[in-house]
Amino acid sequence: MTKARDLANLISGGAVLADGAIAVSEVTGLHAVASSGAYSALTGKPTLGTAAALNVGTSANNIPQLDNNGKLGAIDGSQLTGISGYSYAASFAFSDGY
Fold it and tell me: Which of 25, 45, 53, 58 has the greatest number of CB atoms lying within 10 Å of its CB?
């Protein structure tokens, strides 16, 4: 009987293994990542875009990062295009010179 089968039997009975451990080599059907723990041993992992290799910050070639309040820090927006503005002042009718 293998330790894995012993473990299954012992768990159901509430007992413990004599040495308290099962080696990876004693369990069959495990993928390589189960014993190595290495990301490179995973199969079917997604490919990451080029942004994944960039740093966060407000300098050139950085990914902007939100602050603790979920807001953008001070960044230069002079190169932003396709953004429509809205004037609140133009939407109100004032009388008496106000």
Answer: 58
Distance CA 19, CA 77 (A): 64
Alpha-carbon span 92 to 98, nearest angstrom: 10
Model confidence pLDDT, tens digit, residues 49-87: 888 778 888 788 888 888 889 888 787 778 888 887 776
How much is the mean pLDDT over the chain? 74
- 63, 72 contact by CB (below 8 A): no
CA dihedral 50, 55, 61, 66 (to 10 degrees): 110
26: closest CA among 51, 48, 63, 1?
Answer: 1
Distance (Å, rounded) from C-alpha 59 to C-alpha 56?
8
Task: State both tokens at 9.
Answer: 């039997």
